[in-house]
Design brief:
The protein is α/β, with parallel strands linked by helices. The chain is built from twelve helices and twelve strands.
Length: 399
């Protein structure tokens, strides 16, 4: 992290500790602002996403996988983007794209299942929690009955950060809320239910409520931006599941149903072999989808009230393996996008000098990203949700 940004972050952390009432009084409104989490499932290779093209060590460690300097989309004199991410350059130039490098956590775990559990639950590496970090947030600070659901899940059956009791629905199409509601059997509520059954019945009631909200059709008098449900504007959504998820999210918003968070999964990043072609395709799908999302939300006048964050269970090792791929690694680079984002590079660029077969050290704890969303985006206290104080990053504009 740049020194001036570190001092700003430190100052924000001190303010939150010393003057919490003032800090949250100055914070933005709550869940009417949308959070979109983009999971890069499998562990995206950060080094070939945000490329240290000026480093001789990068090319030493990756004799076949390194992106040629002339192909890198240069952001400054040392770092650039994979060429497949070209659709994100307009957002970078508009300073609505922040890139946070060196994101990780202490004592990292390199198992897919355990590491994504750590990210989804915001736990320490030796701590096992049964509920997601967003579930704990909504339990402590409920979104309210005016919201059709706390969140929707697209592109994966896993609830991830919404696991453990949040009002969340796995959504493939906007009308799948209604289908799930029909599957939720009605009960007579005779008061003899056990605690577990009572919880199930409450979840069913929540699904029916969400279905009723999503099933509402916009009246004919609604303005032109809702005429084509799920329309992404002039930029077509990419083909495949990720593009469909973007279209579905926009159509869900068009329905008038209120949600606080959406989690979209793009899978396939576990590139142990043949990484070059696979990652190029996936990053193109990601960039095209995010560009379409930005244009669709801008047309709906929602871009300034949306914060998009990427995450993955881990990164990849700096040294390529013998199969033209990369193995499970640690610190990674992630994207934060939105109309209120202060674009630029944050965190710490990869420190590759002297590395042979080792891994990267992290500079930014992933829970700082979550604290940024909880405190600076939604205006809620984060310490109890995250199990400790993690200083938000200075990624957001105040207005």
């Amino acid at each position: 992290m740049l020194r001036r940004d570190f001092l700003k972050t430190l100052g924000a952390g001190w303010l939150g500790v010393q003057l919490p009432n003032l800090a949250y009084a100055l914070a933005p409104p709550g869940y009417q602002r949308l959070l979109v989490l983009v999971e890069l499932k499998g562990g995206n290779d950060g080094l070939n996403t945000v490329i240290p093209y000026a480093s001789a060590d990068y090319y030493r460690l990756r004799p076949t996988l390194a992106i040629a300097r002339e192909q890198v989309l240069q952001l400054n004199e040392t770092s650039g983007l994979h060429p497949s991410l070209a659709p994100l350059l307009p957002l970078w130039r508009q300073q609505q794209l922040a890139i946070v490098q060196g994101v990780g956590y202490p004592d990292p775990n390199l198992s897919h299942f355990r590491s994504i559990d750590i990210w989804d639950s915001a736990s320490n590496s030796q701590q096992y929690l049964s509920d997601g970090w967003l579930t704990r947030l909504f339990r402590a600070y409920p979104a309210g009955e005016q919201f059709a659901s706390d969140g929707v899940i697209l592109g994966s059956p896993s609830l991830g950060p919404l696991a453990g009791g949040a009002r969340a629905v796995v959504l493939t199409r906007p009308d799948s809320f209604a289908r799930q509601a029909k599957l939720a059997a009605h009960h007579d509520g005779n008061g003899t239910d056990s605690g577990a059954l009572a919880h199930i019945l409450k979840v069913e009631d929540d699904i029916r409520h969400a279905a009723a909200e999503l099933d509402k059709k916009p009246p004919a008098s609604m303005d032109a931006r809702h005429e084509h449900s799920g329309d992404t504007g002039n930029i077509p959504a990419p083909p495949g599941a990720f593009g469909q998820a973007i279209t579905t999210l926009l159509a869900t918003l068009d329905s008038g149903a209120r949600i606080a968070v959406a989690r979209i999964t793009l899978t396939g990043f576990d590139t142990h072999n043949g990484q070059s072609g696979t990652q190029a395709r996936l990053l193109a799908e990601l960039a095209q989808g995010l560009a379409a999302l930005q244009q669709g939300l801008s047309q709906r006048q929602r871009w300034d009230d949306t914060l998009v964050m990427s995450y993955a269970e881990f990164g990849r090792r700096p040294r390529e393996n013998g199969n033209q791929g990369t193995d499970h690694g640690t610190a990674n680079a992630h994207f934060v996008l939105g109309g209120r984002v202060r674009g630029g590079l944050y965190g710490q660029a990869p420190q590759l000098a002297g590395i042979s077969d080792g891994n990267l050290s992290f500079a930014v704890d992933f829970r700082q990203l979550y604290a940024t969303a909880i405190e600076n985006w939604w205006g809620k206290p984060a310490a109890n949700v995250l199990g400790g104080r993690f200083a938000p990053l200075p990624l957001l504009r105040r207005s």
